[in-house]
Amino acid sequence: MKILVCISHVPDTTSKINFTENDSKFDSNGVQYVINPYDEFALTRAMWFKEKQGASVTVVNVGNASTEPTLRKALAIGADDAIRVNTEATDGLSVAKELAEVVKNGGYDLVLAGKESIDYNGGMVPGMLATLLDFNFVNACIGLEVDGDKATIAREIDGGKETLSCNLPLVIAGQKGMVEEKDLRIPNMRGIMMARKKPLNVVAPVGANAVTTTVSFEKPAAKAACKLVDAEHVEELIDLLHNEAKVI
Amino acid sequence: MSVLVYTESSEGKFKKAAYEVTSYGKKVAEQLGTNLVVLAINSDDPAALYAYGAEKVLNIANDSLNTFNAKVYADIIKQAAEKEQAQVVIVESSSNSLYLAPIVAVNLNAGYTNNVVTLPSSTAPFVVKRKAFSNKAFNNTEIHSDIKVLSLAKNSFGLVENNVSGSTEDFSPLIIESGLTSESVERTTGKVTIADADIVVSGGRGLKGPENWGIVEELAEVLGAATACSKPVSDLGWRPHSEHVGQTGKPVASNLYIAIGISGAIQHLAGVNSSKVKVVINTDPEAPFFKAADYGIVGDAFEVVPKLIEKLKEFKANNS
Ligand SMILES: Cc1cc2nc3c(=O)[nH]c(=O)nc-3n(C[C@H](O)[C@H](O)[C@H](O)COP(=O)(O)OP(=O)(O)OC[C@H]3O[C@@H](n4cnc5c(N)ncnc54)[C@H](O)[C@@H]3O)c2cc1C
Ligand SMILES: Cc1cc2nc3c(=O)[nH]c(=O)nc-3n(C[C@H](O)[C@H](O)[C@H](O)COP(=O)(O)OP(=O)(O)OC[C@H]3O[C@@H](n4cnc5c(N)ncnc54)[C@H](O)[C@@H]3O)c2cc1C
């Protein structure tokens, strides 16, 4: 089985979000970039298939050279090789089109991605990729087993879960549950050393056009101060929620 | 030309989100000077959508569609969009709609954006405001394609009554094969889900252990609320993963979010900040949640919450 894991390179979850150039650009000053948390679940599951079922694991990012440390980290976790499509990723559809080309050229049968990237939260790349390729697709995956070319997938639904089955090829958008949090891998020294020698191939983009553009960013309006209610007078809270906030 | 809204129903019944996207779609249609068409699949009462501005409902009744399949449904939405020459297609932000929307977008060669929180600020160019950076910011996004697909963030627009004399047309689309088989669906019954809830009561590590969750559940019951928890609580196995809310868990966009014994870490707040009103109950007045909350009580949850339950019961008895 040839697995491709799509890695989005995103600001660490504790990053302060600021904008520059008249609120038209994300300010990456002082921002630490990491593997998108959802993609870590996908990558960890891919490593399991590599170790238990002899799958090969390639990681891919669509982005400029600044994303390479993130791909190296994925190699240090255990992926065999990496591909970077050399273009600035600016919207979900163009990213999906670039990834589709990589999948076709590499003949992958299982593509693992995250359910959304925590920067733009677009939630679209995996579904678009699958549709462009005419592969099966399952969103919000919380469990994946593969036996030969048959896959069994659990997905989260509102208030429960659904179990599905299909044949490969398949695109998965994963999240927590696909593997347990405690099983997520962090690179060790040996992994980091080995990652330096693993291939990171830079390929030219097909040049897909973006169909969406950010015109400007906004920060949420400043909040009014929290109204404190005395612990001895909780009925005041009920009054406020009923008469002022009108939510009960 | 038209605006097409796809509404979901569960066992034939629309949920609030169906009326919300219809309300929103009506306003978008007015902005574009065109008509609203609403697509409903296996609904018992398509005419219920008229009250929110649905001039025309395309109604599909087909038992083979009782089990959701994203690819099949997306193809039906495409057929409806083509038939009605839709310029804009709008869906909810339920797990099923978020699953099918990117497929619809590719099918229609359309640009897609989710997390939409306002009406378009302009229709030519077409610009909408959406949440990004896990609720830490918004971006105004321009969609350039001829057809646009939007997913409306839950509870961002609200219900707008707009009674029209609508009509319902039966629609019998082609049903494609999908290659994906649904083997089983498990639902937690009898509980309000976080996705549907107007009120969410959430507990954190401050509650000390799973044996103490009785007060969280009772408070939720009195309020008709869903229960949720912080990430460490689910990591520790005190509560199921399905209750984990926050940046890496479920997003919460309820009317009221009550956080008990939760410190308010940035990753927690990112996921719950879209809730309209936030209440915090915490022993530590310095807990960061107080900066994000609208109302707060500095106090011990084990004393405050039982009192709150008692007073709420009295309130409910007097107000029903
Ligand atoms: C300077 C700059 C500006 C940008 N401006 C914007 C902008 O305005 N709007 C915007 O939408 N995006 C912008 N991006 C790109 C953004 O970082 C994403 O790569 C891309 O847009 C997809 O985002 P999404 O939230 O739609 O992804 P989602 O669909 O939420 O991502 C889901 C999954 O798809 C995969 N994936 C997503 N992106 C990539 C990728 N690049 N490479 C490999 N796999 C990927 C991952 O597995 C991810 O978990 C910008 C990037 C840069 C560097
Ligand atoms: C990559 C990443 C992603 C993350 N994603 C998420 C996420 O999605 N969701 C999430 O929740 N966290 C997430 N976290 C974890 C987050 O950083 C915090 O560690 C976590 O939210 C803390 O949970 P807590 O508030 O329950 O516990 P604590 O921070 O331990 O807070 C407990 C609080 O309870 C109060 N308390 C103690 N006793 C009482 C009492 N008797 N009555 C009332 N109050 C009391 C304390 O004063 C304290 O404020 C993430 C972290 C990382 C690194």
Structural description of this entry:
The complex is a heterodimer of chains A (248) and B (320). Chain A is an alpha/beta fold. Chain A has one domain: Rossmann fold (3-Layer(aba) Sandwich), CATH 3.40.50.620. Chain A has six helices and 15 strands. A nine-stranded mixed beta sheet of chain A has the order 11-10-9-12-8-1-6-7-13, sandwiched between helices. The termini of chain A are far apart. The mean pLDDT of chain A is 96. Chain B folds into two domains: 2-170, HUPs (Rossmann fold, 3-Layer(aba) Sandwich); 199-318, TPP-binding domain (Rossmann fold, 3-Layer(aba) Sandwich). Chain B has eight helices and 18 strands. Chain B has helices spanning 16-32, 70-83, 95-107, 214-223, 231-235, 266-272, 289-292, 301-318; strands at residues 2-7, 9-10, 13-14, 35-41, 56-60, 86-91, 111-116, 122-123, 126-132, 137-143, 148-152, 167-170, 181-187, 199-203, 226-229, 256-260, 277-282, 295-298. In chain B, the strands form four sheets. Chain B has a seven-stranded parallel beta sheet, sandwiched between helices. In chain B, a hairpin with a 2-residue loop joins strand 2 and strand 3 (13-14). The longest helix of chain B is centred in the C-terminal third of the chain and has 18 residues, at 301-318. The termini of chain B are far apart. The model of chain B has no long low-confidence stretch (mean pLDDT 96). The chains are: A alpha/beta (248), B alpha/beta (320). Bound molecules: flavin-adenine dinucleotide (FAD) (2 copies). One flavin-adenine dinucleotide binds at residues 204-206, 230-233, 246-249, 261-263, 265, 267-268, 271, 281-284, 287, 300-302 of chain B.
